[in-house]
Amino acid sequence: MDIGAIKWFDSLKGFGVIGKPDGTEIFLHKSNLTEKVLELSVGSVLIFEQGYERGKKSAQNVHFPKSCTDFLVIMELFNEKKYVTISNSVTRNDKWGNPFSKKVSKTIDVFKLSLIQFCKKCEGQALLDCLKTYYLNDLTVNKPELFIPIYKFLEQQILECRGKDFPLKDIYDFFGRNLNEQILFNVWIKKEFRLIGYLNLKIMRYLRIYFGKIEIN
Fold it and tell me: Do 102 and 148 fall into the same domain?
């Protein structure tokens, strides 16, 4: 699966272009959307498979980010290229009051915007399950050194989208029950014990004793 943002889209003709963070542009036709969408806005982030139509790259199975599989695609952008420049036509008035159109370019953060879209569409329990799956199947295996920066960033985005009532403590407790030595060591060094549900001094003392007895590569 791939990810990108709509650079432009002609709603009358039903086609446009998706820009990927690596600079690639992919043709988009509304017939390849997997769900009915009333309007596609420039800058919206889409998940898709890359195929070919009439000899050119084309987005297939196109949809907005909403599943755990989509979440994994989004998280691949962390520490990678994540920006796409889009252009919008805006109408303004000159000093005589006559309207005119002008193209305005701006750069969007595909990673951050896709997370916002995902958090808004994903149900609460499903979002928790995605965070757990990503932690167990990817971070602990392939990127334990990124646990702290990734989940501090995710925490900020989730709180902005879902508010303070979202049960982040549940996910931190889950992390604490499913630690590996590298993640535990990094948490200990950075003193980010809340990310694994540990907040009291007794546990901190235990960790000091524990890491005094083992060697971390």
Answer: no
Determine the residue type at 47: I
Last residue of a domain, one of 111, 131, 154: 111
Per-residue pLDDT of the chain (217 residues; tens, 9 = 90+): 999 999 999 888 999 999 999 999 999 999 999 988 877 888 999 999 999 887 788 999 999 998 999 999 999 999 888 999 987 777 778 778 788 777 778 899 999 999 999 998 888 899 999 999 999 999 899 999 999 999 999 999 998 888 888 898 899 999 988 988 899 889 888 888 889 887 654 555 656 656 555 444 4
**CA–CA gap between residue 37 and residue 132 (Å, rounded):** 30
Q: What's the CA gap between 115 and 157, in Å, rounded?
A: 7
Whether residue 128 is found in the same domain as residue 105? no
pTM of whole model > 0.85? no
